[in-house]
Amino acid sequence: MNSTTHPDVSFETKGDIAVVTLCRPAKRNALSDPIIAALRTIFETLPENIKAAVIAGEGEHFCAGLDLSELSERDAGQGMRHSRMWHAALEHIQFGSVPVVAALHGAVVGGGLELAAACHIRVADETTFFALPEGSRGIFVGGGGSVRIPKLIGAARMADMMLTGRVYDAAAGERVGLAQYLVPPGKSLDHAVALAEKIAGNAPLTNYALVHVLPRISEQPADHGYLTESLISGITQSAPEAKERVRAFLQGRAEKVQRG
Fold first, then answer.
1. pLDDT tens digits for 4-50?
2. How many domains are there within the chain?
3. Within a domain: residue 243?
4. Which of 160, 179, 200 is the last residue of a domain?
């Protein structure tokens, strides 16, 4: 199945995996407001059979951020509403119906890094580089980066990126937490799809808990987190699919954990 919500965004399904691709290579997949709106629509309306998704970029780059050529002068209120529009769209990725894997290569810059940070797993190939040039351009992140990126690398590293224009290459980015996987050039999409297929094989309620509950537990005081954990643990293990998976393990019908 193939469908298009916007000419610069493609949507394809591979079984129970959705692959969403930014298709604006001449602009290094720079993000316009209509592209952001298309991403929101896609993740709001994923088919019920989809169990995991991948976001990728066509051409030599994942995404070079906001298309500054389309940036109009705004007053403070307009700027705030524009930022909140991005927040709403990326919330549907981070807290949507399925886990999302980002396949990164080339530029992952500015708003492109904000988009990647909204995904649950990031796979970078060796051509990837990460930057937040907003500081040198007299602006500030507006797509949720000030919330999500410090949770990946810490506020001090993010401030350094914005204050000095520091660029992380793929290896350094993986080391500090901007990506969880580092693969050879040209392999990030294949690896991301393979991870999405593995994720799709998990119990749906467990995936939902990892997307929606785990990040919220991390924000709670410890005693609140322990209670939330006990509640979601009880709910997930009571599901019929979970009971069958435990039986399969106990009866030797399930794969055992192997050294990586």
1. 568 999 999 999 999 999 999 999 999 999 999 999 999 999 999 99
2. 2
3. yes
4. 200
Q: What is the CATH number of the domain that holds 45?
A: 3.90.226.10
Which domain, by its residues, includes 93? Answer: 2-200
Residue 228: give its domain's CATH number: 1.10.12.10
Tell which residue, 72, 176, 64, 71, has the closest CA to residue 114.
Answer: 64
Q: Are strands 129-131 and 181-183 parallel, antiparallel or unpaired?
A: unpaired
Does 260 fall in a domain?
Answer: no
Q: How many percent of the chain have pLDDT more than 90?
A: 80
Residues catalogued as catalytic: 114, 134
Q: Tell me, what's the pLDDT at 2?
A: 42
Cα Rg, the chain, nearest whole Å: 19
Of 181, 200, 219, the domain-final residue: 200
Would 89 be classed as within a structural domain? yes
Edge-to-edge order in the sheet of strand 121-125? 2-6, 9-14, 17-22, 52-57, 100-104, 121-125, 181-183
Residue 260 confidence (pLDDT): 66
Beta partners for residue 114, in sequence order:
none
